[in-house]
Amino acid sequence: MHIGIIHTVGSPCRCAEAAAEGLRALGHETVLADSEEIESIAVDLARDCELVIDHTDTFKGRGLLRAFVRQVLESAGARIVGSGAQACFLADNKIAAKGRLSSFGLPVPPGIVITRKGEEIPPWLQPPLILKPAFEHMSRGLRIAATRSEAESAVNQILDSHKQPILVEKYIFGREVAVSVLDGPDGPQPLPILEWVMEKRGEGVLTESFKLTEPPPNRPDALKADLPPEKAAEIRDLALAAFQTLNLRDYARFDLRLSEAGHPFLLEANITPSLESQEAFALSARWAGLDYPGLIERMIVAAQTRYDKNFSLKEAEVIIDLPVGIVTMTVPNGVHVPPQSTIDLAKILDIKAGDRVLELGCGSGLLSIAAAKSGAAYVLATDLDPVSLNTTRSNARRNGVADRVEVAAGAWFEAVPREEREKGFNVILATPPQTPGHKPFGPKYGGHDGTGHLLHIVEEAPKFLKSGNDRLWILAISLANPGRLLQRLRDRFSEVKVLKETNRFFTRDEYESYAKGLFAYLQSLKNDQRCEFQEAGGERYVFRNLFICARGGKKK
């Protein structure tokens, strides 16, 4: 696979380089990209990479904004390894993350939020205290205060240097552990618990300088935690619950403290734990039997499986046998594979040699290719979706008709260039979205009674047809007020024929999956005689596909 890795150039973190080495060991190709350039490169990364690993340290110098990088990637359509942008914004906000964990009954240290100088620390919050900027990581800005005066001074320093709210918490004396969570075939699983060994057991914190120091091989300060089985299970369960509570995906690491009495407290969630081979995430994976490439592979497979399940990363290869010959097409994710009704329409088109053809809403390009293979001299395929337009071009090349199929972006007739409009067309093909709905619900939505796009096409088509013998082909469904459609066709054309009808079976659940209450809405339209379908037995229903050809357009 081609996998992108986002990092902050100049950051001391070497996660990107380590991950790239692990990916290359697995045979993947990698491209490293600077998070500071994300606004200009996100579209290219989404298009060129099957997956993207985002390990941004800071964006525009701010820890809070690193989740913005992931949001830009997602909006461009990138497939992210790890948690989504919304979860990252939550986890990177120490105040919000702590509030959510606490609201779900998970133990966190007691504390308060301070937003300005001079705010009083309540008497119940006794030193020693730990103070953290709300939106930083890598322990940046972290302070320990042994007295109230030290705490007040630390508040002023953090507000001056970081200009963000401060989380002030009770310092927990005790052992510090890290629990990594990694998704797998059986769902997210905690890895063996790591314990950080302090100079004085139970005292101190992991400072920024500690985290920036290059660890030696077989580092002595990070050991597999020696805990009673019941306590280890409790901590693992706590990390897994936090993973699910924060809606994280694929992998993460949690930092916890065990009080002197052995009570665990969640300190922080790390949605991008260090991927360096001597850091906690990789060490815990090693204790679980995963070498470094094996760890990276588990991360990749977790994301790949998730996207395969929800969106299918794979292109569909389609072979269709038409009267004019075999059509082979590649249909990428996000573009509809031609349904049987479109294939049926392609089989009955009456394209003549030399015809000029306009297809409105080309999708993967089947009808345009069929028209060209039938002898059309020129085919203009229009669509609003850039992926559909590129797919049609690619499939036209694959079927040897690229010299006669041109694509244009735009809404219906607005996409037709002026010079082509003046020449006119012999045939117009239209299979617009036409599922009725009480509200917009997705790409199949065709308006309140399904005729929104259909009636517009019928109204405008005569202006684009060259002569009275030229024709408009429409594939309509009986759910979309067929009486109204046919009447409008007869108003605008002198000859209207339904040349073929086929049945399309469906279930209540299919339409409820588009929008809650949609099936009941279809029933209400049926009762008003604006929608036609029948019960077919076995909890199935059936509507009709109508293959309509209209000639003799009446120009106003």
List the defining traits of the structure above.
556 residues; alpha/beta; Rossmann fold; D-amino Acid Aminotransferase, Chain A, domain 1; eight-stranded mixed beta sheet; six-stranded antiparallel beta sheet; 26% strand; elongated
> How large, in whole angstroms, is the Cα Rg?
31 Å
Give the termini separation: 56 Å
Q: Low-confidence stretches at least 5 residues in length (pLDDT < 50)?
A: none
**Mean pLDDT, nearest integer?**
92
Residue fraction in strands: 25-35%
Number of helices: 18
Sheet/helix structural class: alpha/beta
The dominant shape is elongated
CATH superfamily of the largest domain: Vaccinia Virus protein VP39
The number of distinct β-strands equals: 24
The largest sheet, given as strand count, sense and whether it forms a barrel, is:
8 strands, mixed
Number of domains: 3
The helix content is 25-40%
CATH topology of the largest domain: Rossmann fold
For the record, what CATH class of the largest domain applies? Answer: Alpha Beta
Task: Label the CATH architecture of the largest domain.
Answer: 3-Layer(aba) Sandwich
List the helices and strands and how they pair.
Layout: E1 2-7, H1 15-25, E2 29-34, H2 38-48, E3 51-54, H3 66-75, E4 80-81, H4 85-92, H5 94-103, E5 111-114, E6 129-133, E7 143-145, H6 148-162, E8 166-170, E9 174-182, E10 189-190, E11 194-196, H7 208-212, E12 222-224, H8 229-245, E13 251-259, E14 264-270, H9 280-287, H10 292-310, E15 316-322, E16 325-331, H11 340-348, E17 356-360, H12 366-373, E18 378-383, H13 386-398, E19 405-409, H14 418-423, E20 427-430, H15 452-464, E21 471-477, H16 482-492, E22 493-507, H17 508-512, H18 518-527, E23 534-537, E24 540-553
Parallel strand pairs: 1-2, 1-3, 3-4, 17-18, 17-20, 18-19, 20-21
Antiparallel strand pairs: 5-8, 6-7, 6-8, 9-10, 9-11, 9-13, 11-12, 13-14, 15-16, 21-24, 22-24, 23-24
Helix pairs in contact: 1-10, 2-3, 3-4, 11-12, 15-16
